[in-house]
Amino acid sequence: MTRAEMRRAAQTANRRSSRTTTERHGPGVRPAASSRRGTSGERRLIDYPRADRRGLGRWLPSWKQVLTVLMLLVGGTFGAVGFAYATVSVPSVNPSTQLQNNVFYWSDGSQMASVGQVNRQNVSLSQVPSDVQWDFLAAENASFYTDPGVDPQGILRALYHMAEGGQVQSGSTITQQFVKNTYLSQDQTLSRKFKEIMISLKIGAKLSKQQILQGYLNSNYYGRGAYGIEAAAQAYYHLPVERLNVSQGAFLAATVNEPSVMMNADDPQARPQATARWKYVLNRMAAIGKLSPTQEQRYLRAGFPVPKPMSRSGSMSGQVGYLVQIAEQYVEQHSSISDQQLNQGGYQIHTTFDRHQVSELSASVARMRGQHLDPRHRPADRNVQVGAASVDPATGAIVALYGGDGWNKGHYSDNANSSGVPVGSTFKPFDLAAALDHGAVLSPGQPPSPITPESRFDGDNGIEIKNQQGQYLPDGSDPTGLLHQQNDVSTKWGYITLRKAMEQSVNTPYVQLGEYVGYDTVENEALAAGLLRSSLQYDTAGFYIGTSTPSAIRMADAYGTFAADGVHHEPYSVTEVLDGGRQLPGFTPPAGTRAMPASTADTVTDVLRDVVEHGTGTNASALGRPAAGKTGTTDDYKSAWFIGYTPQLSTAVTMFKEGSGNSGLRSMSGVGGYSKVFGADMPTQVWLGYMSAALQGRPVTSFPPAPPLGQGANENGAPSATPSASPAESPSSTPSPTTPAPSPSPSVTPCSDIPGGCTSPTAPTPSPSPTGPGLTGGLLGPGGGKQGNGGGPSPHR
């Protein structure tokens, strides 16, 4: 057979086969085997595009193919999510979210200062009213208590908007927002959102709903620099979170999403938008059944809860820096809280400081400065410092301080709480109290003799001083010579009573009295009254007339012991410390202790009342109510004091001039236009202005009467008659606090507070030390120098 015949035979066979197939399956249908094979005849794993279709049908998948793909997608998604859930771990808490501040409160409960890197105070959920909690749940996540921690619809909505390049929408659950705030960055990315979802699912299974809601409320930013709901309550309504109502809570819930709008809601121009957000939250509360329609309408009729204007409660300007410093020191001294723990924040510290009285004390200092000091035009007025403290004698509570110009003006040392400023003759009341309690050894080898304010001692200038053994004291600057104690002038006082010597600040009677009583006895009396051992300087006879350097706080407190009938209360500045709502132990007000018999305290008070009524402190008598006090001025006018008290309040004011660097105190001669600066002048003016305002409206209270004590023993059988040379006691002998004092005549004892007299050699005077807290367990250093002639600083007006 030829090749052409063979081709014809094959074509004939094919045509027959095609006809047979058509007859069996119908036209246009190929055998099934062809659907599973390619052109090479091999079987295909996935028949797509479909080989047995033509045109559009070739690209349409079969229902089996669609179902298979869907099953693969769902399975893959669940597998990927499961893998991610298993591999994603809950990261460590972002340290910045744990930063808190310490909040300090005035004695009336209002906020004094917020101190820390972040304005946040974490609170427990139990401190947040239930209705306020639901404000947030209604606005953000009503299904919070039933959902697993994520909201699929919210997630899809957020992913859609992020894919479009828009902002993340409010669809995240409270759990997700808590996770974002606490564990993650604030980046708006798909990867961060996916991680947020995974961690939220784990957190939802790990923490209780209450823990999550508490963390959410404490971690949100609410505007006005407030992180957490406690800081927000203070920032907008000046209230603790416990006192928020539903309407105020609705406002705070609205700030979470739009803090930039809500933070200025006290501005009428921003009010409409803020009001709309507030109404939305109340509407949501009603919609989920947490407010009845009647309640909702009542809140709407009451009107928008306008927030308080933004305050500067966190500022450390003015006196607040010193008050916070005192309170922090007290907290550390009376608890197990370390300095490091305190710096980490989270404490609510309630203080004894009275906002009104602190303001009045600061204003009184400002008035005195404005009237007398002109540092721009009078060089002598430069670097003049004032310190003051006011204490409640009945409790020891420190109600007011003046520490200086303020931290905001670069003055960081607290003048009210620093050591280094000698107190001068304001120390003399402790000499008298010790003598009243223990008597004095007037004759060697004899028992102590009873002493009263009417006991007489030699008040002449330049007398030699004897000890209990009858030996004359040597001169510290000249071992070969004897100490000749100086007064201010050479007036022949003769033998005068201790009362008169206190009134006129005559030195010699009290130096001699102190020697007869004894160093240890006088020291113990001062310690019992409230001074610290570290501040007492008793290496010379000058100890008895004020070489010691207690702080103004301690002096006010010690004089308060006299005001409280001899009962001493340790000065304290903190009444309560809370840590996350938990009250810490150790801050119960100190109990009073008997420092001296009531008869002793009342007798000292009676003598100090004479100082105000007839002596160097007559400027204080303008208070117009019973008051007792003592002036003090030290060597070369380097410090001037006035300490006075009523039954309700004891206040100490000190004034001194700092030298450059560490050169110590400088003379205040010429300050304020006064040739000689006495405690009776500018310090008394500060005291009078403050006490008048602080006691305004309070009842006038009298001191207990002094008990009758008789004449008491006299030194060396001194005559009972008062020397005729006694100077006049006219109040006019004291310079007015409002006019510069001229150099007084000898008859008015012009330098009675100056150690060693006006012309005697002077000793170095210590500079104030800002390091000592001046409170119980404080670190006040001795701070005082030795008097070369043993004379010590001398008291005056």
TrEMBL record:
Supply the name of the protein.
Answer: Membrane peptidoglycan carboxypeptidase
Key words of the record? Carboxypeptidase, Cell shape, Cell wall biogenesis/degradation, Glycosyltransferase, Hydrolase, Membrane, Multifunctional enzyme, Peptidoglycan synthesis, Protease, Transferase, Transmembrane, Transmembrane helix
**Domain (Glycosyl transferase family) ranges:** 109-285
Q: Name one GO biological process term.
A: peptidoglycan biosynthetic process
Gene Ontology MF: a single term: peptidoglycan glycosyltransferase activity
- Gene Ontology CC entries for this record: outer membrane-bounded periplasmic space
Species whose genome carries this gene: Streptomyces caelestis
Residue ranges of the TM segments: 66-88
Instruction: Report residue spans for region: Disordered.
Output: 1-45, 441-462, 701-797
Q: Which Pfam families match?
A: Transgly, Transpeptidase
User: Which regions are flagged for Low complexity bias?
Assistant: 718-736, 748-762
